[in-house]
Amino acid sequence: MKYSIFSLARAALSGHKNWQRTWRDATPKDRYDVVIIGGGGHGLATAWFLASEYGIKNVAVLEKGWIGSGNAGRNTTIIRSNYGLPGNTGFYELSMKLWERMEQDLNYNTMVSQRGVINLYHSDAQRDAYARRGNTMRINGIDAELLDLAAVRKMIPFLNFDNARFPVQGGLLQRRGGTARHDAVVWGYAHAASALGVDIIQNCEVTGFVRDANGKVTGVETSRGKIGAGKVGMAVAGSSSRVAAMAGLRLPIESHVLQAFVSEAIKPLIPGVMTFGAGHFYVSQSDKGGLVFGGDIDGYNSYAQRGNMPVMEDVCEGGMALMPMIGRVRLLRQWGGIMDMSMDGSPIIDKTPVDGLFINAGWCYGGFKATPGSGFVFAHLLARDESHKEAARFRLDRFRTGAMIDEKGQGAQPNLH
Amino acid sequence: MRIVCPFCGERELGEFTYLGDAKPVRPVAGASEDEVFDYVYLRDNVAGATSEYWYHGGGCRAWLKVSRNTLTHEISAVEPAAGAGAAKVGA
After folding, report:
1. Helices and strands in chain A: count of H runs, count of E runs
2. What angle do CA A353, A355, A357 make, to 5 degrees?
3. Residue that finishes a domain, picked among A307, A324, A342
4. Is the CB of B43 inside 8 Å of chain A's CB atoms?
5. Which residue segment(s) compose the domain that A264 sits in?
6. In this complex, which of A242, A250, A310 lies closest to B47 when CB atoms are compared?
């Protein structure tokens, strides 16, 4: 069905009893041109771009649970393109531009809200580093503004500016950054992809790969039977190592848990997305009023989708350092998601050494903002057998050749990225 | 998660720092590029029982080898890493 102001009015006037299901819950066919493993944002976006941009409509998306049940529904919904290194800068801006037209493209309200992302700085050295990053963004055509103390005071007057240890001195602002409704992004891509003929198959866990005599992947074994495929793309961040292992591959990735938090609803307070530069704390306020926030990953390998107390304490300390008045606000919910932590902190979108198998992985804790861009460039790779120019550096072999993209400069220690 | 340090007893997680999988062994000098690449960058990233190195920086400052399940966080054994005073606890 197509959504418009008239369909909305009709549904409202008929007591919201006649809403149609927005996408088809398909049963698997014997064969598809492309099979995507993983019904999260990236997998569904890939399927939609394959169908809409590259004309490949005989596509299935296989999801082991329900769509959006993994990291797509667990993140803190932030979108931004404030990266500093070649490879990341252009890619995330491509993604940002796709966010800006997503609702029109998909005919779905994904609640994209460009309310701004500000990274606060607390020292002269940090100001210089942010100025450099802002300059990098601007020469690449991305918006960035370096705000001084007076400008930040005007914008966010309630911060603890005079914190004796970490005084706020200013911030790097990307006005086009902001938030989007994460579940709606999943449903929106499902809605638009399904309308173009893509089969979205839930409760269908991949248990192995079907390979011919030359080792080429020709399909997948699943909990719902064998499904043939011309090509297979995996977009299963968090579980990439487990799926790749079925094809005999070891990856430069560790799975780590990242926690996120929501407070009880309070009146509108936080104007956009803010990050505390002296620790690791980022926060926005949802339209329902809850403060949505997070910080570092827990730091140990995990597939458990739940974290531990030391990081909760650290994250809340970051919040308190910035805004002591939130100390009486109660925490409503807390949860964990499993991150594909790569060896340089940047993603992998490439062919694999196994013919017919393509990989989209290694998103660390930055996958949500990449959703449309990731889908676009992965669809390009699957359709054309060559990398999109904005994803050409996200190679699987860059760890061997030394062409790492390490924004944080931490080296091959995934829990420090 | 709490870790029972063989030197200090049961302590909370905040006292410990994680290094990672205890399985990879540093290649000998003169090892091939493939072996070094494998050691530095590739991981089994096990979902299930695994053994890993933790550092007890908030306690005895010994390196420990912890057997832990990455699906449940359950810890089944903790022993001193080689060279971390293993002889003192008879390990």
Report:
1. 10, 18
2. 85
3. A342
4. yes
5. 117-176+254-342
6. A242
Residues A141 and A248 in one domain: no
- The total of other beta-carbon atoms located within 10 Å of residue B25's CB is 8
Which amino acid is it at A373? G
Question: With an 8 Å Cβ cutoff, are A301 and B20 in contact?
Answer: yes
Answer whether residue A2 is part of any domain: no
State whether A185 and A318 are in the same domain: no
A8, A14, A23, A56, A188 from A108: Cα distances, Å: 12, 21, 12, 22, 5
Query: Are A180 and A127 within 8 A, CB to CB?
Result: no
A378 and A313 share one domain: no
- Using DSSP bridges, classify how beta strands A31-37 and A59-62 pair: parallel, antiparallel or unpaired: parallel
* Tokens, residue A291: 């403060």
Retrieve residue A390's tokens: 């904005």
Which of the four pLDDT bands, split at 50, 70 and 90, describes residue B82? confident
pLDDT of residue A1: 76
Domain count, chain A: 2
> Do the beta carbons of residue B6 and residue B90 sit within 8 Å?
no
The CATH number that applies at residue A78 is 3.50.50.60
Residue A1 domain-assigned (yes or no): no
Interchain pair A250, B50: CB under 8 A: no
* Regions of chain A where pLDDT drops below 50: none
Q: What is the pTM of this model?
A: 0.96
Q: Identify the CATH class of B2-89.
A: alpha beta
**Is the CB of residue B35 less than 8 Å away from at least one CB of chain A?**
no
| ipTM higher than threshold 0.85 | yes
pLDDT for res B85? 60
In a domain, A56, yes or no: yes
Residues 44-83 of B with CB under 8 A from A: 44-47, 50, 52, 70-73
CA distance A337 to A327: 25
Q: What is the pLDDT of residue A406?
A: 96
Q: Which residue on chain A is closest to B37 by alpha carbon?
A: A400
The closest CB to that of B52, out of A252, A301, A412, belongs to A301
CATH code, domain with A172: 3.30.9.10
**A17: in domain:** no
Q: Are residues A412 and A352 in the same domain?
A: yes
Q: Looking at the structure, tell me whether residues A168 and A303 fall in a common domain.
A: yes
Around A385, how many Cα atoms within 13 Å sit in the side-chain half-sphere?
4
Give the pLDDT score at A206.
98
Residue A139: the pLDDT is 97
